[in-house]
Design the sequence.
């Protein structure tokens, strides 16, 4: 009789434990997936000087700071493509199917998305893979773009000059997106970082330079309500309202307006 009672109590205890922890237990049994075509590149820690161009109505002003990348991470070799975005849409993780221009196909970078769209994609990707994906900060993006080298005033001026020579001005010709990998790769084998797509970062643009220069953490920057403008990076640096998905005119950029806005993803390690 005692043995029966003990067994019953044990069974009830196990039932209660399973009921309280079922979500966590079932998650262990759920097979994780990988995103088709997603290639990640290993990035090691390091230090570099990052120069930032600050908008000014009269002249160009620069601000330089020492950046320390303390932890290794991975970043996607290419920007997220139309096909990858549509997989997210089909799975219910993204709000709408990609809208293509006539010349585009599934291997082109996904554009016409807001910062919030890109942020949501990283949340979906983290959920299906069981890994920690997010947007890179401006510092992480610049570290990868320069392959660990200092980003100087000369670096920025050279990019601006190349962009202006290419004819992408408010009255210039529209630059098309191209298939992933079409714009070459860095020394660290990361592609298309200064192509025709401008990429969302996690970094905020606040109302004052003093606030923008504060050492914000990834956790703070991941708050969707932290700021109304996020930094995009590419041929130049710009700040764009988080809800905007494409900008062809206006003064959001430090040099010329943004043509296309897309993104790539970062995976945290450890």
Sequence:
């Amino acid at each position: 009789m005692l043995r029966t009672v003990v067994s019953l109590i044990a069974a009830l205890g196990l039932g209660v434990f399973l009921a309280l922890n079922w979500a966590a237990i079932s998650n262990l049994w759920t097979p994780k997936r990988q995103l088709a075509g997603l290639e990640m590149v290993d990035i090691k820690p390091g230090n570099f000087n990052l120069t930032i161009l600050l908008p000014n109505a009269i002249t160009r002003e620069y601000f330089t700071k020492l950046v320390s990348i303390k932890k290794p991470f991975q970043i996607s070799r290419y920007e997220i493509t139309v096909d990858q975005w549509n997989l997210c849409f089909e799975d219910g993780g993204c709000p709408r199917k990609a809208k293509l221009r006539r010349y585009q196909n599934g291997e082109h970078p996904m554009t016409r998305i807001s910062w919030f769209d890109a942020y949501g994609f990283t949340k979906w990707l983290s959920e299906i893979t069981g890994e920690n994906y997010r947007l890179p900060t401006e510092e992480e993006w610049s570290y990868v773009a320069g392959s660990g080298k200092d980003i100087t005033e000369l670096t920025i001026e050279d990019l601006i000059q190349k962009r202006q020579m290419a004819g992408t001005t408010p009255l210039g010709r529209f630059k098309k997106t191209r298939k992933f990998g079409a714009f070459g790769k860095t020394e660290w084998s990361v592609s298309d970082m200064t192509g025709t797509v401008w990429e969302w970062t996690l970094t905020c643009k606040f109302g004052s330079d003093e606030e923008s220069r504060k050492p914000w953490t990834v956790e703070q920057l991941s708050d969707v309500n932290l700021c109304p403008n996020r930094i995009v990076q590419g041929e130049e640096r710009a700040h764009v309202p988080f809800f905007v998905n494409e900008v062809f005119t206006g003064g959001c950029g430090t040099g010329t307006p943004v043509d296309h806005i897309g993104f790539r993803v970062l995976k945290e390690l450890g």
